[in-house]
Structures are given as structure tokens and as C-alpha cells.
Input
Amino acid sequence: MADKGGSKMGWEAPRWVRTGAMVLGALVVVAVLVFALRPQPVPVDLATVDRGEIEVVVDEDGRTQVRDRYRITAPVAGTLRRVTLEPGDEVAEGDPVVWLDGPEVGVTDSRTRAQLQTRIAAAEAGVGRAEAMVEAAEAGLVEARDQLRRQEILLEQSGGSTSAVERARAMLRAREAEVRSAEFSVRAAEGEVEDLRLALARPGGAAGGAAEAPLELRSPVAGRVLQVHRESAGAVAPGELILEVGDPGRLEVVVDLLSGDAVRVVPGAEAVIRRWGGDEDLPAVVRRVDPSGFTRVSALGIEEQRVNVILDPEGASELWARLGDGFRVEARIRIDRTDSVLRVPSGALFRNDEGWAVFLAGDGRIEERNVEVGRRSPAMAEVVSGVDEGDRVVVFPGDRVEAGVRYRER
Output
């Protein structure tokens, strides 16, 4: 029987209960610490390996220039009248543009006559070369027409491709432009011969003698004055450049590529002109890859072998009229285009000790995978082996991304 007069005793948990509670509390604390201190998943951007188009291009700065320029020079020594024409002024074919005064503009001695005859012979040889260029350009034009006809027939018979027809058409337009340029060269060379013959036929006067009519130099082509190299009146020497005439509506773009890129460019290749000052890209086509290169020192002081590639405007875009002679542009030239290839974003590729690799998004963790890369464009790269269609890869991986780490998609 309990002692009613005694004090009440508090309940005390058994020792095993107290020990278990302490252990459980310690485990909870450890679990919280482990969870708090464990590495958090790395946020990454993912892209899916798919099949699509790869367009291989090369980007480089270029400059515009009038395709056909005629340089008006003094055929003999004389006194130049002040040139009143200004850049941009229109001239018609046969318009007088330069006048030379003074008795010295005539042939006064056998030495001057011999010099003029030598220059006339050289100019006539230039006419012959220009005419040969016309013949060669016309032959190339005939070949381009035949090639286009063959490609169109193949396309109708389901044995060709649309891209091959487009290339043939671009080549045809390039050959047509070459014919026009060669014909301009003939007219320019003939104009030089005419100026020299006029100077040769002009008799020289004695000092203080009767004033002779000025020797007129005429523009052999219709166009605009591009540059005035000598504006003020005064003595000029034989061959001194006075002004240049051309048609600013017939522009070309000169792009100097690294020789390693130039060897992959072919005439007829498609191109676009970017960052020229307007919002739209301007279509262009490769007309010629120069057969010889030159050395240029880069901004880093490295010698580079460069090759000039000439582009012609494509189509009838009115935006080309906004450009003039000597404008800076950026050209993008298409080197190759392939449809339906396995590809990944270029930003997913990186280099390791064995070559190219990507980070694959596996089951909660990152996996590093070596790949073999084929064609590359600024945005996409062809993958020959290493990944499969539908795989997900990390794009622009940061320093925290490595094989085995946990990840989460942004």
C-alpha cells in the first residue's frame, strides 16, 4: 500500500530511451549538416543533338570599289588648266574633262616623238590584251550557260539538286559581269591610244609663238568622277594621274582572306554583305579568287598570307546604291552546305587531351564524351561519332561543370 504521507516521485524514462533520443538527435543534426554541406547541383543550359543543315562560312572584312575605273593621265608634259569637275559629277562618253595648254604639249623634238610612239605601241598592245580578255570572258560565258542548262535538265529528271542549279546561275551572272568588265577594258585602252595619238599629231610651238588650242582629254566612258588627283592649275609631267572616272553603280567587293580559307572558296559561291550600315544583308556572289597572294602583318604583329576574293552584287537590291567606292563592309562567304547531318551547337564543344569532347547530361550527373567533329559553322558543328540523336549536351559549360557532378537544367 502506498505511503500517502510521502512525497511524489517524478517519472524517469528508462536509460535506453534517453540514449536512443540522444542518438536520434545526433543523427538528425548530422543529416542536416550533410545535406547542407553536400555539393549543390550545377545549373546548366542543355541542347539536344539533332539532325539538320550545316552551313560552313568564312567571315572577313572587305571594302567596296568601283569595278571599272578609267584613269585619265597627261599624255605629254604641259600646263594643266584648273580641273573644275568634282567627285560625283556625271560625265558622258566623249566629254572633255581635262585641258592642257602651252607649246610644250606638242611634239617639239624627235625624242618626244619616239617616246610617244613607244607609249602608243604599248597602249595598242593593251588594246589587244583587253580584246583577248573579252574573247576569254565570252568563252567562259558560253560554258556557264551550258552548265546551267545541264543542271536544269538534271533537276527536271530528278538527278540534280536545287543548290547545284543556284550555283550554276550564280556562275553565269559572274561570267556575264566578266564580259562587261572586259569590254570596258577595251574602251579604256582605246581611249588611251586616242589621247596619245592626238598628242603625237599636235605640232609643237616655239616659246612666245602663237597660242595653240588646248589639248583636250575626253572621258572614254560614261559615269561619274570618282577622284580628282590633281585639281590646281600648273605643270604636269607625262603620265601624271589627273582624275578617275567610273560607274559607281557597278560595284564589287574585295575581301582579303587567309590563304587557308581562300583555297576552299570557288567562283559562284554565295555570299552576303553584312554590317554595311543598313539593317538588311545584301546578297553577293564570288566572281574570282585571285591566283596570287600577298603578305599582311596582323594587329598582333604576325605575318599572314592573304588572297583577294572578288564579290559581285547579286540581284537588283536598291540598297546597293547606298554604298559607294571605298566603303567598309563585312562579307560572309558560304563554303559548303550539307543537309540532314548529326549536329550539336558549336558552344557545346571543348578541347581535352584527346581532341574534341562534349558534356552529356546523364541520369542526374554529367558525363564527358569524346566526339569526332566534321564540318563546322559559327553556330553548329557536325558530329561524326561519339553521340546519338536525342542526346542532351551542355552548352557553354562553366568552370564548375565536370564529369560526375550533379546538375540541374536552367
